[in-house]
Amino acid sequence: MAGSSQRRDSNGLEWAKWLDKYPPSSGAKDEDPGEVARQKHEKNLARRRLPIDDELDLHGCTVEEAVSRTRRFVETSRAHGLRKVLVIHGKGNHSNGESLLRAPVRSFLSSHPGVDEIGTPGRNNGGDGAVWVLLRYR
Predict the structure, then answer these.
(1) Domain count, the chain
(2) Which of 12, 89, 99, 104 is most buried, by the most CB atoms less than 10 A from its CB?
(3) Residue 97 lies in a domain
(4) DSSP per residue over the chain, as a string?
(5) Whole-prediction pTM
(6) What digits encode the pLDDT tens for the residues 86-112?
């Protein structure tokens, strides 16, 4: 093997011949992980910037009513092809400073198979007193 410039494995098979015999799959990509992360981040930002198509206000509802109305709202919104909706559950200003609906509504939305993603909107759309919902269509 002296003078051989080809790399060999433990069985003496040259790597070039091995690669000819077993080429990498066509799906293999030499992408920069940083670029992939940047593209994913930009896609997520674009989705979050989608306009709100409809909203549901749950002020004055009991927890059971709020979850039931939210379920119907999500299902109806998906049936109409809406992409992003807003659910207003309130901040708890009339409940001794603690929102009674926030946790159960967000928990329901997080577990619903028709919901892709949820998040807290900016102050102009309710801030902590609301939740935006991206609906899933797969």
Answers:
(1) 1
(2) 89
(3) yes
(4) -TT--S-B-TT--BHHHHHHHSPPPTT-----HHHHHHHHHHHHHHHHTSPP-EEEE-TT--HHHHHHHHHHHHHHHHHTT--EEEEE----TTTTTS-SSHHHHHHHHHH-TTEEEEEPPPGGGTGGGEEEEEEP--
(5) 0.68
(6) 999 998 776 676 789 999 999 999 999
